[in-house]
Design goal:
The complex is a heterodimer of chains A (397) and B (139). Chain A has 397 residues and is of the alpha/beta class. Chain A is 33% helix and 17% strand. Chain A has a single domain, classed as Peroxisomal Thiolase, Chain A, domain 1 (3-Layer(aba) Sandwich), CATH 3.40.47. The longest helix of chain A is centred in the C-terminal third of the chain and has 16 residues. The two termini of chain B are 16 Å apart. Chain B has one domain: OB fold (Dihydrolipoamide Acetyltransferase, E2P), CATH 2.40.50. Chain B contains one helix and eight strands; from the N terminus they run H-E-E-E-E-E-E-E-E. The chains are: A alpha/beta (397), B mainly beta (139).
């Protein structure tokens, strides 16, 4: 059974990213943004019979039941998705699968990240509390990576960038151009964290190197935020308030958790995920109107463009030079500004690639609307190029 | 890396029954990893179950400790608070001569001298009486 055209995104909601939340609970944020997405779809809570939630610290056990109870849902289907930055995209494919299998009809998928102001009482997070600060982490990575300061994600993407430069070559200017184009997009999105703050290639290259070869302006800034979508059956979607963003294709691939044990630093699992999604959708790369690609770092985007098949392996730098990546250019990339310039609110940052693709398909892109946007490619990336989820969304079934 | 000042405050491994032989050997300044009896491939990290499937067994083998830098970064800013007192340091994936990859620091050389493909050899840091992280230095 293929998921092609079986379900659609019919409602979206997102909090404007902020540096900190004051006293908010993750549960409260998850519920609020879910409510907003249901209202955006023009639905009553009683019409929602499924909920998918991320793994969150306040509910280490039975998170789906916790959110269903909080929202007052009569849920026929509840699920947790734990794919790091690919969580949002993975929620959509799982919601569609549950709907297509007849388990439920309308699913709200919700993500949120709160962020308390850092205090002077010791480090914000310790290795003992895990990378995510969520709970004690006892994995091979904490045993064999963490003791060497291989903590967080910056170091891993820096190693990917250095290996990429060694194998294929890309200039600092080419990588910087990705960040600059996305900032241009953010300057057309009043909800973006960096709205009103344009940057140049020189600004990127003059920003401090954090981990060789990555500059500060090539690295996402962690923020708080929330994002949710409502997925329903194609039959019901046709009767909704907004034009639906149909799910036409989905594919996933995972080979490793720690980058230490990735089969390759430069050939990612995106290739298998994207190939499956495009094959399911029955569309070609050149048919795609926007690329909504997970962008925790500039190098992530470069490798993703290649592995998703928009150019050959090793030609990412030349591709960036040859194309205008702005929302009004010939290869519109992350019209909302991407996480680099819109903001990375944990898993909600990954979901922002889904919400933006859906908005663009629905024609709700406001001052950053891509003309005649009928087909979107979405990629979610978890951890350090670990879990990969590719989606194809379209205006027509 | 500079010599750590006591007490050692950086994260330490928490060995399991599967990994204890690796850390026991490291304390003796030896590098031991596992090898598949079925395929002859070396495996790292240590585990109870072979990635080559049922019917295989993993045996412990002492290896050369030689390898090359597969990739690396120089952390100009600390990657975690416990490294805040350190100048720029190198985090690398080392490809052992026997094949497997592992992450470590490249020590005993200026960070800017590290290159991909550079030959390295294991070196041992007795940071506590119980634990000796395996590091690499230029060969």
């Amino acid at each position: 059974m293929s998921l092609r055209g079986k379900a659609a995104i019919v409602g979206v909601a997102e909090f404007r990213p902020s540096r900190y939340t004051e006293g908010a609970t993750t549960l409260g944020m998850l519920a609020q943004v879910a409510c907003d997405a249901i209202a955006d779809a023009g639905l009553d809570m009683a019409e929602v019979d499924g909920v998918i939630v991320e793994n969150f610290a306040e509910a280490p056990f039975m998170a789906p039941a916790t959110i269903a109870e909080y929202l007052g849902l009569d849920a026929a289907f509840t699920e947790i998705v734990d794919l790091g930055g690919a969580t949002g995209a993975g929620m959509v494919s799982r919601a569609a699968a549950a709907i297509a299998a007849g388990l439920c009809e309308t699913v709200v998928c919700t993500t949120a990240t709160r962020r308390e102001r850092r205090t002077n009482e010791g480090p914000r997070r310790t290795a003992a509390s895990g990378f995510s600060g969520r709970r004690v982490d006892r994995t091979p990575s904490t045993e064999f990576d963490t003791p060497y300061g291989a903590i967080g994600a910056n170091y891993g993407y820096a190693m990917i960038a250095n290996r990429y430069i060694y194998e294929y070559g890309v200039t600092p200017e080419q990588l910087a151009k990705i960040a600059v184009a996305q900032r241009y997009n953010a300057c057309h999105n009043p909800d973006a964290l960096f709205f009103g703050q344009p940057i140049t290639v020189d600004d990127v290259l003059n920003s401090p190197v954090i981990v060789d070869p990555l500059h500060m302006l090539e690295i996402v800034m962690p923020v708080a935020g929330a994002a949710a979508v409502v997925v329903t059956s194609a039959e019901k979607a046709a009767r909704m308030k907004h034009p639906p963003a149909y799910l036409l294709g989905a594919g996933e691939h995972t080979t490793h958790k720690s980058i230490t044990w990735a089969p390759s630093l430069t050939d990612s699992a995106i290739k298998a995920a994207a190939d499956r999604a495009f094959a399911m959708a029955g569309v070609r790369r050149e048919d795609v109107d926007i690329a909504s690609i997970y962008d925790c770092y500039t190098i992530t985007v470069l490798v993703s463009i290649e592995d998703a098949g928009f150019c050959k392996k090793g030609e990412g730098g030349a591709f960036v030079d040859a194309h205008n990546l702005q929302f009004d250019g010939d290869f519109p990339l992350n019209p909302h500004g991407g996480q680099l310039s819109f903001g990375q609110a944990g898993t909600a940052g990954g979901m922002s690639h889904v919400t933006e693709a859906a908005r663009q398909i629905m024609g709700r892109g406001a001052g950053r609307q891509v003309k005649d946007c009928e087909l979107a490619f979405v990629n979610g990336n978890g951890g350090i190029m670990s879990d990969q989820v590719s989606l194809i969304l379209g205006r027509n079934r | 890396m500079s010599e750590p000042t006591a007490p050692y405050t950086r994260p330490l491994p928490d060995p399991t029954s599967a990994t204890q032989p690796f850390w026991d050997a490291a304390r003796q300044h030896r590098l031991v990893i596992q090898r598949s009896k079925k395929t002859g491939h070396y495996v790292f990290y240590p585990r109870n179950v072979s990635p080559f499937g049922a019917g295989d067994e993993l045996e412990w083998v002492e290896v050369s400790g030689r390898g090359t830098v597969y990739s690396y970064t120089v952390a100009r800013r600390p990657t975690a608070p416990q490294w805040a007192d350190e100048g720029p340091y190198v985090i690398a994936i080392v490809e052992l001569a026997e094949g497997p990859h592992l992450t470590a620091n490249v020590v005993d050389c200026p960070p800017d001298d590290v290159k991909i493909g550079m030959p390295v050899v294991a070196t041992y840091q007795d940071v506590t009486p119980d634990v000796t992280p395996v590091q690499f230095r230029p060969a």
